[in-house]
Amino acid sequence: MRVLALDVGSSSTRACLYDEHGREAGEPAQRKYEARQGELDADELVAAARAVLGEAGDGHDAVGISCFMHSLLLLDERDRPLTPVLLWQDRRAANQAEELARRLDEDAVHTRTGCVFHPSFWPAKLAWLRAERPELLERARRVVSLADYVFLALTGELRTTLSTASGSGLLDLHRRRWDEDLLAELGVDEDLLPPLGDEPVGTTHPPLADGPCSNLGAGCTTADRAALNIGTSGALRIVHEGDPEPRPGLFCYLVDGRRVVEGGAVSDGGNLYAWLERTLRLENAEPQEPDAHGLTFLALLGGERSPGWNPRATGAIAGLTFDTDAADLLQAGLEAVAYRIAESADRLPEVREVVATGHALLTSPEWTQVFADVLGRPVTASAVAQGSARGAAVHVLERMGIEPEVAPLGRVHEPDAERTDVYAAARERQRNLYERLF
User: Fold this and answer.
1) The CATH number of the domain where 11 resides is what?
2) 285 pLDDT band (50/70/90 cuts)?
3) Is 80 among the domain residues?
4) CA gap 301, 27 in Å, rounded
5) Has residue 287 got a pLDDT over 80?
6) Is residue 104 part of a domain?
7) Assigned domain for 100 exists
8) 122: which of 15, 19, 86, 425 lies 20 to 30 Å off by Cα?
9) DSSP state letters, 269-288
10) What is the three-class DSSP state of 308?
11) pLDDT given at position 5
12) Are 63 and 57 within 8 A, CB to CB?
C-alpha cells in the first residue's frame, strides 16, 4: 500500500510517496513560487501541483492532499478564477473585520465557528469584496478556497472537507454546515459555497488543512502533546477527539468528523527570521544570553492573530541605544516570536509535551532551545522531514483502516529554569508594550 501525498504550501508545493507504515518511499518533488502582496495565482499553483505529481510517478494506490488554510478565491460560471488567491496575510479587510465586530456578537460567532472577525477569514474578506470589488462578487458563481480549486482541477469535482471549511470562519462547527446567520449578514447565498464532503474521487482524497496535517504527521494527536510549527508563520496546535469548545483568544477548527484542532497562530515566524537576516545582513550570528540586549520587540510585522486578533497591530522595538547592534536585534526578534507563542500556550494548560516542526525550527536548534526556555517545558524536535505531507498520507491510511508507525522524534531540548525566569520578565515587558500601543 502506497500513498502519494501532495502538500500545497504558500511558498512551495511538494509531492512525496509514503508506504503503509507512514515512511517516505522516495525523494520528494518540489516547485517553489512567491506570494505577491498577500496573493497567489491559482493556476500557477495548480500547475505546480500537477508537475510534482507527475514527477512522483504512478506507483501509488491513493493520493492524499494537504493545503494551506484561510485562502479565498472567486470563480466564474466556467469555474475559472476571477480573483487571485487571497491569503491570510492580506490585511485589506481590516475595516470590514472591525465593522463586523461592532455590528455582531463576536463571542457568539467565535463559539459557533471557532473564528473571530479578522482579515484572515472569509467574513471580512467577503465584506471587503462587497465594498471594494462588487462587480467581481456579482459575477462570481463560486466562492472557494485554494484547496477546493486544486481538488476541482485534479478530479473535475468540487467539494470541501470539514477541515478546510472550518478554517474559513463560515462553518458552524457544531452543526457541521455553513453558518446561515453569517451568510445572511453578508448577503452571500449558500449555493455559492462548495458542498461539504470527504469522499474520494477515484483514488484522490479531498484536501485537509495543512495545520491539522502537520499534527497528524508529527504524531501530535492528543490534548497533552502540542505541535509547535514555525514555517513562514507559526502556530501551536493540539488535536483531540470530542466536541469543539472554542477558548478565548484561540482558534478552533475541525480535523474531520471526530477530531478537533485548536491553538494559536502568529503571523511572524520564519518570515521574520528571514527579514532580520536580510535587513541586518547577518550570517551565522552567535546566540547570546537570554534578554541580554534589553530590547522589547513586538513580533507583529505581519499583523496579529492569536491571542488579540487585532487587525491594526504592527511590529515595534523599544529600548534601542547606540550600544544595540545587529546581533541584538536578531536575538530579540527570535525571542519575541517565542513570547507570542507562549501567550497561546498559557491558554492550553493541558499541554505537557511540545514537538517542534517546520523548516525554520528544525534547521535551528538554537531557536528551538529558546522556545523550550520560554515555554518552560521540553521541546522535542520532530524527525519527520515533511510533516504536512506525512499527515496527508497518515489521514488516507487511517481512512483505509491502516495504522501507520508512530512518528519518529529527534533531539529533546530541556528548559533551563533560570532562563525561563529571565524570559518571564521579558514577556511581561512585551505585554506592557503591546497594551500601551494597541
Assistant:
1) 3.30.420.40
2) low
3) yes
4) 35
5) no
6) yes
7) yes
8) 15
9) SHHHHHHHHHHHT--SPPP-
10) coil
11) 97
12) no
